[in-house]
Specification:
It contains one helix and six strands, in the order ββββββα. A hairpin with a 4-residue loop joins strand 3 and strand 4.
């Protein structure tokens, strides 16, 4: 759940390169669908020392409903995998106007 009470699920596809010393270079595209069936799409990149956890950057490239207002917003994220599920913490820098819009949406 985010700071505005939204929750949902995401599906991602992309490329993952691993080097002989097990460093990871990941580039993916994700579709997130919230509890109201609004969607947003983001590009994410991550370079880390291991596959099971790491930090990276993402950018929202498109959205519907409330998410349309976040097009172009960049985020930092941390991810850790357990039992084939990814647990993600993401922090995005948004303007006061975007924050007010999301607070009043619904």
């Amino acid at each position: 759940q985010d700071n505005f009470g939204n929750y949902g699920e995401a599906g991602c596809m992309g490329t993952i390169f691993t080097s002989k010393d097990k460093k990871v270079d990941l580039s993916i595209m994700c579709e997130t669908i919230d509890q109201n069936d609004n969607k947003f799409y983001e590009e994410s990149i991550r370079k880390s020392e291991e596959m099971n956890a790491g930090i990276g950057k993402s950018k929202i490239i498109e959205g519907s409903g409330k998410w349309k207002s976040l097009k172009g917003v960049g985020c930092n994220f941390a991810i850790k995998y357990k039992n084939n599920l990814g647990f993600i913490y993401s922090k995005c820098k948004i303007s006061k106007e975007q924050k007010n819009y999301l607070n009043n949406f619904n």
